[in-house]
Amino acid sequence: MFPDSNRGEETKHPADNTSLKDDDAGKGNLTILDQDDLIDSRHDNASSPSNTSRPADAVKDDKQNKVKNETEKASPSNTSENSSSSSNSNSGSSSDNSSPGNSGSGSSSDGSNPGNDGSGNSSDSNNPGNSNSDNSSGSSPGSESGGGSISYPRAQVAFELPATAHTDSEIHVVPTLKYTGSLTWSLTKEAVDGAQTAVELSKAIDGSLTNEGGTITFKESGSYTLTATAVNYGGRETICTKSIIVYPVVDVSFDLPEYTHTDRTVTIATYAKLDGLNIVWSVAKDGEVAQLESIIEGSLGSDGGTVAFKTKGSYAITATVTDATGRSFTHSESVAIFPVAGVAFELPATAHTDTSIELVTSLTEMDGLTAEWSLTKNGEAVAISDAIDGSLTNAVGKIRFKQKGVYLLTAKVTDKSGRAFETKATTTVYPVGAAGFYLPEITHTDTAVTVEATFQNIDTAIAVWSLTKEDKETAIDDYIEGTLTNDGGTIRFKEKGKYVLKAAFTDGAGRTYSYTSTVTVYPVPSLTFQMPATAHTDTNLKIDTTTTEMDRLTVEWLVDNTYGFQDWSTYVDGKLKNDGGTIRFKHAGVYELVARVTDATGRVFLFETGDKIEVHPVLDIRFELTESTYTDRTIDLRTTGNIGVLPIEWSITKNSKTVPFETNVNGTLNAQGGKIRFTEAGEYTLTASMTDALGRTFSYSGTVTVYPISEIQLALPEVAYAGEAVTATVSGSNLENLTVAWTISTDDGDTNPYTDYANGSLSNEGGSITFKAKGSYVMTATMTDVLGRTFSESKAIIVYPIPEIQLTLPQVSYAGEAIAVAVSGNNIDNLSATWTISANDGIAAIYTDYASGSLSNDGGSITFKAKGNYMLTVTMTDTLGRTFYDSRAITVYSIPEIQLTIPQVSYAGEAVAVTVSGSDLENLTTTWTISANDSTAATYTDYAGGSLSNERGSITFAEKGSYVLIVTMTDVLGRTFSESKAITIYSIPDMQISLPQLTYSGEALPVTIAGSELNGLNIIWSMSVDGGTTVPYTQYATGTLGNNGGELRISTDKTIIVKLIATAKDDNGRSFTFVSGTATVKPTVQCSFTIPSSVHVGTNFNVSMKSVSGLEGKSIVWSLTKDGSAASYTGSLNNNGGSIAVGATGTYTLTASVTDDASRVFTHSENVTITNTAPNKPTASATMTRTVKDQKFLVNSTVSSTDPDGDTVIYEYSSQSADGYYAAGSHTVKVRAKDAYGAYSDWTDINFTITNSAPSTPVITRTPNGNSVTPNTLVTITASSTDPEGDAITYLWEGRPSQTSAYPLGKNTVRVKAVDAAGAESPWTAIVFFVADSTNGGGMTLTGPESVILEQGLAGATITEYTFTVPPVSGHSGSDYGRVRGYNVKKGVWDQLDYQTTTNGITFSRTLTAGVYSQLEFYYYTNHNCMYNKSNITYSVTYYFE
């Protein structure tokens, strides 16, 4: 860091170490020489002792030095050099001695001269009477001439230097000299350690310094001291020094390329030696200041950086460094940023000569650039117009490659910098093919079908035959027998279904040509079933069928009863379906079933097995049998049903095993039933059976459960006791599987579950219970079988209670104190009680031997006579003589007496003597407590120091208060005995005074007091400032201080240190002094200013200071913010305000901040609104023309706008084309105005519609126009179309080499569409014709009885006209006929369009409705072979494209 440039300057005498600090920096000082430095005449004028004149050059210097020394202005005591006797009275003389009469003018003296009233005079000694003028003499007192010493005035020198400069600054040094014989210059430079080092002027500066000064420039930076040494005419030196800090000139240069692109980075390298300074970077885009971070990606620091520009434009980058003097060094470089031009398009990997390719070119950042297109075919360059129909521009377009081949299309764009951008795309173009075959619409699985196929341009491809069944792709071999090739074949469908047969081949481009035909295949159904030979009328017969190919067919079932088919519902219950079903014959008889099926073709299928079934009637028998019974009950059984004359057999099973009827049942059963009783328990099934002629047994069974009769015996004691266990036992017969329920009834007649009266558990076998209470009870065991029938047995029992005794008395007591004795318990009524006591483990005796008082059955109250260990026992006897007792022990102690001695008053910190006396104090433990101010007692050490024992002690109370000292003695039982005495303690007050460490002038300075014993004190406050004398605080502060402190306010214009003193006196007149810590009071900084409330953007405005004070050498820091973020401005501000301008609109806050030494920040802010009014919304219009370029139309637009502020306006467009040309359709171009500061108007929509209709569908004219032409015949084919807007029309042909040309043998297809100048295309139109003759062929030659030509059509077209010709053959006459069918796309079927019989050849010609027929089938039949290989069939077709 450079030294502080504001430090004071020093002027030193060469022979004196004393230096004076110059408080008026920059003016220079002269140092007064002491008496030893005076010039003696023996040295200066020895040759002429009487010469009193001055040298000529001194006189000359006096005339030249018109400017007074700056030190004379600064101090009333001017300095010069004199040599004189003490009583010199000559005019102009000066003396070293005190001379109260000196009143001369212009003299100088080394002494203090308060009486000097001459202008510019000073004296070397205290000489108030000196009246000499500007002379120097060596004569004695009273002498005007003669010998003596001569003295010369001290040389005077002063010059000015700026506080700071730079190595490129020219500094003008102008010295002011007086009494100077010679002047020399010297220079020192401050080293790193602070020491001054002499340097040669010639090496340190450019320029030179003479007596007149000079202009210099420092070569290097540093802290320098320039010294001017003036020598008077007596050879004495006077020096003047000035310090200056020289700063280096910062080189912030850097390089930028002339141009670059937005996709490339730029490295900016700086060459500056910054020495801790920072480079501030700024940027302007197209002449407007912009935010750096919005312009670049990357960062720039003091060492530069690598950045990329985000958007195109012309940029100026500026590096600025500001040094400690506030001087800014800048360097700017400009760079043009070009965008990355983008040209992109795609071509399909493959295409065909009939395919128009929608070529969409995506262009970005073109800025008026035009793409250049080039093309190669099979690796060789070709002209685009020769190979492509359509045009290539910057926009969207359609192209079609005319011939097959491999093409490479290139689009290239070169910008102004010469950088090229290009995109390539490759496509392979293939010719167009076709596929077709014939297949009948209906067939069956047992019928062979001939498929006739025709393929065009198949070349080496192999036709792929595929099959879908019910819209699902299938393997063709799974469903077809036979083979299909490029020529077709003969096949048979294996399964029924709806099939679509497809023939397809794929060319090298992956384009597939296919033809499909639908055929429905019907199956042959079959059905088989079986029936049993016999059945009954209750037999449900499950008829299961086995069927095949019955889908969508319905089986009709017939019944024959040997007399022919009968009504089904009369003889059969139930229905049969395709899969059979369940039926039952209603009547006995012999029957046969027949199934009949008719398919969709009307074919009938009968399915007969020839099997017959014999149906027999059903017999019936029933009876009712109860579900359960007992061995003591009789059952009355009766039979019902269709029994007839058949005998009935009765049988029985017991527990699932057959048993003899007679041994288990009493009674008999016949056909009508009977009465029976089962003799033993068990599960029985009774069955009645009869058998018909077919051996079928008809039976009925009933099941009954027979239960036994149970017997119960209950064993229970007659008496018991509550709480004692009682055993109950159950025995008997037939008790298995019974559930038992136990109940108890009381004397009151209540019967409840046994658990209400007893504890324990009872099961089927009995158990153990304990009665809860005394009483007379009856216990009953009730057993229930599965039918709910109950069997029970009861026993009575009497239950007696057992008493419970609880004796209660204290465990300890004291002799002579009554104790309470209580007896409680249960069931102790009507018992008698006796009481005994045993003493010290001795024999028990009647209780009155040891205690007084009385005891009864309920207890009582007794008093033990003496201390000791005792056992008290109560014994109770019931009416049966059974005794019950309880005992309790008690220890009896004696009671002590205590006396406590203590003084009534004492003081905090003084010892107090304490003594204890009394009786029965042995073996007692002592606890001392103190109660303070009637509060709860606490351990004595909480309030006092010292120690206390059982007998005595000494304590010292810590605080004042009213206390009670309590001694508490505790015996072994913990019983306490206490004595207390009161004492009053007085204390000394304490105070702490708290002040904030820092406050400010005029702000509150709170004074708080903390301490103790301050109540009732009278406090007097005083203050000391900066360690000075203590005075009443009101001399320095306002506010009030009292016994509780207060609040002061101190006003000061400088920083001071204050301290408070409080003097307090208590009621006894004792004084106490308390001193606070120090508080620093600093001045409050004022830095308010005014600015306008609003200013137009970019306009300078003044910042005027209103009040500035309290800075104490600090500088105001200025900041500008917008929405809380830092903002920039131009101009400069300092402690005096200034002028600035803001370059962007918005509401800003300008803030002046000053931070004092305590880091407190004082601020003042003012708001200013930077305004800018946006331009007015433009008015605009568009004018359409029919001028066409690249299939687009020229549109001219007119735009106008004004700016309210008068700013320059430019226009920005959205959706505007680069060249003003637009495709047909509706367009909206938006335009807005932008002023010089970036304010935008609203968008204005320019709406316009360019209409363009496609040309009409061309009409093709072919000459000659017959079905066919002979080979090598020139055929002229033309087309005509009209355009609604009158635009020029071109025709796009396929299959036409030229307007007039000879066509190849066979079928020829030619199609054409019209295209206007804007690229609007009409639908295609096409014709088909043949080149053929009887010699060379060319059409289809008859080779058999049936000939079929399939015209498969063109994609997207329907047929509107056809001609079909089978030329006659000489000599032929047969039963021929011809037919034309068309595939109706609306119905999805083939319609017959023409049919006619003939004897020799035929011609059909028809005009069709457009949009109906897409394919034609031409058919001719002849029954004579005389036409074979002779007739050449041809046709022509006209197509219509939607």
UniProtKB/TrEMBL annotation:
Domain PKD/Chitinase, residue spans: 168-249, 356-432, 725-802, 911-988, 1088-1173, 1179-1253, 1259-1334
Region (Disordered): 1-151
Record-linked Gene3D superfamilies: Immunoglobulins (2.60.40.10)
Low complexity bias (residue ranges): 75-143
Record-annotated membrane-spanning stretches: none
Regions of compositional bias (Basic and acidic residues) in chain numbering: 1-26, 57-73
UniProt name for this protein: EF hand domain/PKD domain protein
Organism, as annotated: Desulfosporosinus metallidurans
